[in-house]
UniProtKB/TrEMBL annotation:
InterPro entries: FIST_C (IPR019494), FIST_domain_N (IPR013702). Residues 219-357 form the FIST C-domain domain. Residues 26-218 form the FIST domain. PANTHER family: BLR0328 PROTEIN. This is FIST signal transduction protein. It comes from the Bacteria.
Length: 377
């Protein structure tokens, strides 16, 4: 595995951070950056000057992770040449098809050949897609394949997210990267660290990822009551108080964040499904617990590995970033301490994180969670 990394802060010049001295052969080029930076039409040509060949996957973020640092208003490039294995990239746009996320996910995964497929990394639009339905569609065909990834971000603006494959990124795009080969050692981990508080309530009315009623009362009214003065800052303020959702079909609680609100329906649109009958409880942050959560995610990722990771792709939540503020890099430092200095670090802060629980291979949509995918050949 050969890796090159570059970063660009604002309007400054590109800086090489982790550079393999020779040119890479058909690398996977992962480009993660602030939405305003990725909207610049000159970006692709700038990348081609740095990396003349390879497959470019772009995604907007709520913060860029490269090395031990977290940046804003930047673009971070990680280019990876797999020497003993291969990858295949496919994409679809949910806005150009008359289908929901479940159907699109199934259509997308059907494009990847099954033979020797080991893992799929997902980079999805994040402002309106139902992440739970997308995962269900992706998992509908290949039951023994694992999935990780994230929903792209747009800082705390929640205006739009952009994804692109070998073209300027655009709204509605979903990209999957299939990894092939017995030589690949891929592992993953996830953990939150948020603390539940207040009374438990039952979801009495919902539709997929839209929450209408808790205990037969309008959900948005109840939520605003808890937020108090912060209610006027919705949906941004919701990142500080996510929901713990315990549903009958899951062994572990899922954390859900509100993406947007519908005042006219007194409803909240969440990043993933919130089934009726689930038990909901508000959650709040303790920074030390959140940092410890990142450490636990790394420990999980390292638990079944046969070799030290060469590459780590981290996907963490914008809510964690807002809460930790100036301490945000502590969770990156905890991960590096667990996985080792030899691993090249890349990643982003997202609107939703994709990874299986520790106890199984089935992927879940998480919010307010640190996830990591570790690679070696």
């Amino acid at each position: 595995m050969k890796i090159q990394q570059f970063k660009k802060l604002g309007n400054q010049n590109w800086v090489s951070l982790h550079k393999y001295e020779n040119s890479l052969n058909n690398p996977l080029i992962l480009v993660l950056g602030n939405r305003y930076q990725l909207e610049k039409t000159s970006l692709l040509s700038e990348i081609r000057e740095l990396l003349p060949n390879g497959e470019i996957v772009c995604g907007t973020t709520a913060g860029e992770i490269i090395g031990e640092r977290v940046y804003n208003d930047s673009v971070a490039i990680t280019a990876v040449e797999f020497e003993k294995s291969k990858f295949i990239i496919e994409s679809e746009n949910i806005l150009t098809h008359n289908m929901d996320a479940l159907t699109l996910g199934a259509k997308l995964i059907d494009k990847l050949p099954q033979k020797d497929l080991k893992h799929v990394f997902v980079i999805s639009e994040g402002s309106f897609v139902n992440g739970s339905a997308l995962i269900a569609g992706l998992e509908s065909k290949y039951k023994n394949v694992t999935f990780t990834g994230g929903l792209c971000g747009d800082d705390a603006r929640f205006e739009k997210t952009l994804v692109g494959y070998n073209e300027n990124p655009k709204e509605g795009e979903i990209v999957i990267i299939g990894f092939y080969g017995d030589s690949l050692d891929i592992s993953y981990g996830q953990y939150g660290g948020w603390t539940p508080f207040g009374p438990e309530r039952i979801i009495t009315k919902s539709n997929n990822n839209i929450l209408y009623e808790l205990d037969n009362q309008p959900a948005l009214d109840l939520y605003k009551k808890y937020l108090g003065d912060k209610a006027s800052e919705l949906p941004k303020s919701a990142l500080l108080y996510p929901l713990s959702v315990k549903s009958p079909n899951r062994k572990e609680a899922i954390v859900r964040t509100i993406l947007s609100i519908e005042e006219e329906n007194n409803a909240m649109i969440l990043a993933g499904d919130v089934p009726e009958g689930s038990v909901v409880q508000l959650m709040m942050a303790n920074i030390d617990n959140i940092v410890e959560g990142a450490s636990q995610a790394a420990i999980t990722g390292m638990s079944n590995r046969s070799a030290k990771p060469e590459l780590a792709i981290l996907v963490s939540c914008i809510g964690r970033k807002l809460v930790m503020d100036q301490r945000v890099e502590e969770e990156i430092e905890e991960i590096i301490e667990s996985i080792g200095q030899q691993a090249v670090i890349s990643g982003f802060y997202s609107y939703g994180e994709l990874a299986p629980f520790k106890t199984g291979n089935s992927c879940e949509l998480h919010n307010q969670t640190m996830t990591l995918t570790l690679f070696s050949e």
